[in-house]
Amino acid sequence: MKRLLLAGAISIAVAACATTTSPTGRTQTVGAVPQQQLNQLGAEAFEQYKAQQPLSTNAQQNAYVRCVVGAVVRELPASAQGGWDVALFNNDSPNAFALPGGKVGLYTGIFKVARNQDQLAAVVAHEVGHVVARHHDERITRQQGAQAGLGVLGALVGSQYGSNAAQATQQLGGAAVQTAFLLPNNRVQETEADVVGQQLMAAAGFDPREAVALWQNMISAGGSQGPEWLSTHPNPQARISELNARAADLVPIYEQARASGKRPNCG
After folding, report:
1. Which residue in 227, 231, 238, 255 has its CB near the most CB atoms, within 10 A?
2. pLDDT tens digit string along 89-106?
3. Which sequence positions are flagged as catalytic?
């Protein structure tokens, strides 16, 4: 029944697709799923994931990530600041995600590469950037022409979850919603999230230059080839060069934010 309902909802919504402009000026096609429903699906995926994955009980680390997320989302428009939910999962992978509806998940393994609050802010702001730029909406809209319902969501499953993930998605029904939202994004979206995220972190009073150090740490953590999940991301060295170039322009924004009293002290 869930499959039929979701398939019908996406099929009906196809006619409502619209062209819009992303935060970086790129043309996007969005709207296969209404924003309210997208937020609901994001919340459902988040609750499913929290029910299935072990949550960290480390109070200090939980407070740390909530502090960083709070500082970043306060730079969003007032209408988008409320209701953000944060979860820290006990998982050794250096990973994080954000979902429509204001949901942020981080794995404890992220602390291996995000070694201070500014580097963690680079991670968080990048993931929030995916939400701000409507990348989940864009991805689902792009796929709806080929498949419908859970077939769409199954098609969105990325290599991060293994070669059998798409098949498992079809079999697990409602879990497909969760998995679809957590797949790696394409290179264009990753670059755009870098741009948006670096701007957000600087405006929040986090040093945008630390985004460069973060990615250097990520590459080091994965050896000469980098982590496997980087295969869907832009070339790491090119990415670092772009982050470094943008950081130079964002330092004045960071310094202005600090001068105005935005001095996050998350730990």
Report:
1. 227
2. 999 999 999 999 999 999
3. 127
